[in-house]
Design goal:
130 residues; alpha+beta; Thiol Ester Dehydrase, Chain A; 4 helices; elongated
Length: 130
């Protein structure tokens, strides 16, 4: 891995994906799952769990960039706007630091919603295992 190396991909945030994440996480907040309830909130419609997008980011890193076997050591995300159920989330990853003494890499992460607005950003430190 080299500083500046980038990866991006799009993932559809389907109602089924949100339902499955609710099952796994135990987070059945109606803002995510109940269209009628969500309509009464400032968002006006269901939003995805913030940690769902964080988990998808983990999946990208552990299987595609940096790749298979990568281990998350630290993940920090600041959530700025929602990703709506039905959106396609855009994940942007960029290597910003490579430790010279260990296979440890820091990756800047940005997540955008279907309208191209930044919904979350932060950094993740991973150990690259090959």
């Amino acid at each position: 891995m080299d500083v500046g190396q980038e990866h991006s991909e799009h993932i559809a945030i389907t109602p089924e994906l949100v339902q499955e994440f609710a099952k796994v996480s135990g987070d059945y907040n109606p803002i995510h799952l109940d269209t009628d309830y969500a309509a009464t909130t400032p968002f006006g419609r269901p939003i995805a769990h913030g940690m769902l997008t964080g988990a998808l980011l983990s999946g990208i890193m552990g299987t595609r960039f940096p790749g298979r076997g990568t281990i998350l050591l630290e993940q920090g995300l600041k959530y700025l706007k929602p990703v709506f159920v039905g959106d396609t989330a855009h994940f942007l990853l960029r290597v910003i630091h490579v430790r010279p003494d260990k296979p440890v890499v820091t990756i800047a992460c940005t997540i955008k919603n279907g309208e191209g607005e930044v919904t979350a950003e932060g950094e993740t430190v991973v150990k690259v295992v090959r």
